[in-house]
């Protein structure tokens, strides 16, 4: 670790985890997370207003905890990074406001970064610099996409995405049908280990020869599983929960890994990374490893704690932004709940990037329309 590597604090509040991470180069110094997941559990999903309030309460203590763990003082930082989007608007706003306040008070550059690019970049903390290019499969409760990146600070290309539910959402919904609680992924993962993945042949979405090669669909699978369970219950039979969990999980991870490996082969990319909360799934990891090995692809999956939403991933991308001299955001940075995946960060308005001239014109005219 070189002494001149950037020291960056990252703030993540796009959903229900208040995450604050501190990174030095690609070394993780602190990863403090305060989750409001328990408060949402009884509603069966994340309630945006509750999440925003929880972020507000957790923000300063979580930042202080991270600084203490890292053993640094805020004035030593080279920059403050924050998730600018995509995510829940009100939740993002809390993180962006906090990051702006700290950046202003400390006189440090501010980097508004993309949540999805952060999920990819976090792997640098575990496995070193990302190979360029890298194919990334991001699977969580909010997103399921295949992305190709040749430089995580400037080039993220969408290859495919879900056309309906996110992969994690499917886990959560099936868990609800089975009365297993929220979030559903971890408990299905656990039960599936004792079930037979071949017990029930559930459909593989968008897997026909005429279907888009890299897009995903999980809503048909979700309906098929729910109907199957209903039919069992209507017939007065016991639902074989472990077999249902294993067969459902197999249908999801079969499609995810097949399409990811196919994208790598088609694009001649020999590194695949998997991130997002569903990347914690043990069967997804095992099947991806098996299929990558067979195809001569190197698989990179961060440890589960770095796959779910956290501040370390934001700090990791912020650190890379500083290392590559990317322009900082300005203090007028606003949260963008639908920040495009193609924007790894939000450079300040004074920064002139010819490649994005067209988008700026578009944004300005859209703004005029509503004001
Ligand atoms: O990345 P994340 O923490 O938050 C979002 O950005 O959504 O992902 C949460 C999602 C939830 O849907 C949860 O059920 C799923 O990740 N998940 C899992 C596992 N652990 C978490 N899904 C399958 N298997 C797991 N072991
Ligand atoms: Zn996420």
TrEMBL record:
The protein's matches in CDD domains, at most eight in alphabetical order, are given as:
ASKHA_NBD_TsaD_bac
UniProt feature, compositional bias: Low complexity: 335-347
Q: Where is this region: Disordered?
A: 335-371
Which reaction does this chain catalyze? L-threonylcarbamoyladenylate + adenosine(37) in tRNA = N(6)-L-threonylcarbamoyladenosine(37) in tRNA + AMP + H(+)
Q: A GO molecular function for this record?
A: iron ion binding
Task: Give residue spans, biased composition: Basic and acidic residues.
Answer: 354-371
What name does the UniProt record give this protein?
A: tRNA N6-adenosine threonylcarbamoyltransferase
Q: Which organism is it from?
A: Streptomyces gardneri
């Amino acid at each position: 670790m070189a002494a001149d590597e950037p020291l960056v604090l990252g703030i993540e509040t796009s959903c229900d985890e208040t995450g604050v991470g501190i990174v030095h180069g690609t070394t993780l110094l602190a990863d403090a997370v305060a989750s409001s997941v328990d408060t949402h559990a009884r509603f069966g999903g994340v309630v945006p207003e509750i999440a925003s309030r929880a972020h507000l309460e957790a923000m300063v203590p979580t930042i202080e905890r991270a600084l203490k763990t890292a053993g640094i003082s805020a004035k030593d930082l080279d920059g403050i990074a924050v998730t600018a989007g995509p995510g829940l608007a009100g939740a993002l706003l809390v993180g962006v406001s906090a990051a702006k306040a700290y950046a202003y008070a400390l006189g440090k550059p501010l980097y508004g970064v993309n949540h999805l690019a952060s999920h990819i970049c976090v792997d640098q903390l575990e496995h070193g610099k990302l190979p360029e290019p890298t194919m990334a499969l991001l699977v969580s409760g909010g997103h399921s996409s295949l992305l190709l990146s040749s430089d995580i600070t400037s080039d993220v290309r969408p290859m495919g995405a879900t056309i309906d539910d996110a992969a994690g959402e499917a886990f959560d919904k099936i868990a609800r049908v089975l009365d297993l609680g929220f979030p559903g992924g971890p408990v299905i993962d656990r039960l599936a280990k004792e079930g037979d993945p071949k017990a029930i042949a559930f459909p593989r979405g968008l897997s026909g020869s005429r279907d888009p090669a890299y897009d995903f669909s999980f809503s048909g699978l979700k309906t098929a599983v729910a109907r199957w369970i209903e039919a069992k219950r209507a017939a007065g039979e016991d639902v074989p929960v472990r077999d249902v969990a294993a067969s459902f999980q197999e249908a999801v991870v079969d499609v995810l890994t097949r399409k990811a490996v196919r994208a790598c082969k088609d694009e001649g990319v020999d590194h695949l990374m998997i991130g997002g909360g569903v990347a914690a799934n043990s069967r997804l990891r095992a099947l991806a490893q098996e299929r990558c090995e067979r195809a001569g692809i190197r698989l990179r999956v961060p440890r589960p704690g770095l796959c779910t939403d956290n501040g370390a991933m934001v700090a990791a991308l912020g650190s890379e932004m500083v290392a590559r001299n990317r322009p900082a955001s300005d203090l007028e940075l606003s949260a963008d709940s639908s920040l495009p995946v193609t924007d790894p960060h939000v450079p300040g308005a004074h920064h002139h990037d010819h490649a994005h001239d067209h988008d700026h014109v578009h944004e300005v005219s859209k703004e005029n329309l509503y004001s």
